[in-house]
Amino acid sequence: MADEKQMHRMSAEFQRMVDDFFAIQCRYSAAMREIQTKLEILDDEFQMRHRRNPIHHMQSRLKSIQSMMEKLQRKQFAVSMESAVENLYDIAGIRVICSYVQDVYTVAELLTSQDDVKLVHKRDYIRHPKPNGYRSLHLIVEIPVFLQEGRIMVPVEVQIRTIAMDFWASLEHSLRYKADGAVPEEICSELQQVGEDIAALDEKMQAIHDRIDAAVARNLPKEKDFLP
Q1: pLDDT, tens digit, 9 for 90 and up, residues 169-185
Q2: Catalytic annotation, pick one of 4, 45, 82, 157
């Protein structure tokens, strides 16, 4: 009987969380769209100025209720939508995939320098990779969203990485998921080494890109070439 009451209470709490989630979902969706639109505009402007796009592609997502509940429990926070809003900064997330390492920092600087974007937190896993070899630049930014009840600041997590970093992270995640997290130590070491190899390739591609840029700049017509 006690178990039935507990199950009923948990079911009711989950239903309240679902209702609360849909009530605030619009604000996180709006914030995510605002940031994505800003990034698209920055990418277009960069293309006009430099004849290439720093952003290869983007992905966005909202955390599911189950994912939020699991994270709240893992972090030992109260399991409620109010607690999620207060304690979780990655409910809305955008992943930005760039061609080159320097593009990662350029995009981050262009985004966070805008007046209505507030940088809350920054973690640079490119210059300081995780022990498993993971590399990416993580930003938590807040942006104003204007709703019926007024102006509110909503956090969005922005992960910025290169194509090569995303390739490694995606496959590493899928391998760990397949192994249910029980990856042998020797394979973990191999994955870390592959991460280092990919980072070295990123550096080489950046160097090649910089050399080509310099060669193109040397061959561009000078202003004097157009004077009579």
Answers
A1: 999 988 877 777 677 88
A2: 157
